[in-house]
Amino acid sequence: MLENKDKIVNILQKGGVIAYVTDTVWGLGCLPDNESAVKKIYEIKKREAQKPLILMSNETYNLLDYVKPIPKIGQILIKKYFPGALTIVTDKSDKTPDYITSGMPTVGIRVPDNEIFREICEIAPGHVLATTSANLSHQPSAKTYEQALANMQNLADMVIPDYGCCAKGLESTVAGVMNNELRIFRQGEIVIEI
């Protein structure tokens, strides 16, 4: 379904930034090991430096190197809600650069349930994207291709069409699982029940 695969890979490898659909809202992302690309995301969004990005992939195991062993409660949430509209915040490993986490010792990870996003991650080098929502800071998140295009025109290097795999429009729930304790940082689409 996904077209222009070579172009997408090329943009990412050259430190570019792409906008894409997820199961919740539209995302803006780059390769996590490219500091200048991450800086570009902050510039595009006019995002405060103390607000971290998260890491997203098409498979949970692609994200495991970026975090320390996930506490049991986090593993339960992953089994139950990945792929889906849940971001889990947990202790980062040395592989996750400080410029992604704003110097914090934790990082958010997520596996969206969207076919086009999955295909993008399959071709992306390393299969992981450092990501945030495709809008300017303090503006509403983009819920459609048209909104993402309007927000990111002349800013992102590419806005990838959703090919009919639309975003639902509600942000993900953000849950922290440090020290095996569960904390809800943002209530989004998923209501956690354990």
CATH superfamily caption: DHBP synthase
| Helix percentage range | 25-40%
Overall average residue pLDDT:
97
Which strand order does the major sheet show? 7-1-2-6-3-5-4-8-9
Kindly provide the name of the CATH class. Alpha Beta
End-to-end gap: 36 Å
Instruction: Report the order of strands and helices.
Output: HEEHEHEHEHEHEEE
Beta-strand content bin = 15-25%
What's the story with the biggest beta sheet? 9 strands, mixed
CATH fold descriptor: DHBP synthase
**What is the count of helical runs?**
6
Q: Which blocks of ≥5 consecutive residues have pLDDT under 50?
A: none
What characteristic shape results from the CA principal axes? Answer: globular
Structural class: alpha/beta
What is the multimeric organization of the chains shown? single chain
Name some characteristics of this structure:
DHBP synthase, 194 residues, nine-stranded mixed beta sheet, 6 helices, 26% helix, alpha/beta, 20% strand
Report what the structure shows.
- By secondary structure, the chain is of the alpha/beta class.
- It has a single domain (5-186), classed as Alpha-Beta Complex (DHBP synthase).
- The chain contains 6 helices and 9 strands.
- It has helices at residues 5-13, 35-45, 72-81, 98-101, 115-123, 145-152, and strands spanning 18-20, 27-30, 54-57, 86-91, 106-110, 128-133, 158-159, 173-176, 183-186.
- It has a 9-stranded mixed sheet, with helices on both faces.
- Strand 1 and strand 2 form a beta hairpin.
- The radius of gyration is 15 Å and the shape is globular.
- The N and C termini lie far apart (36 Å).
- 45% of the residues are buried.
- The mean pLDDT is 97.
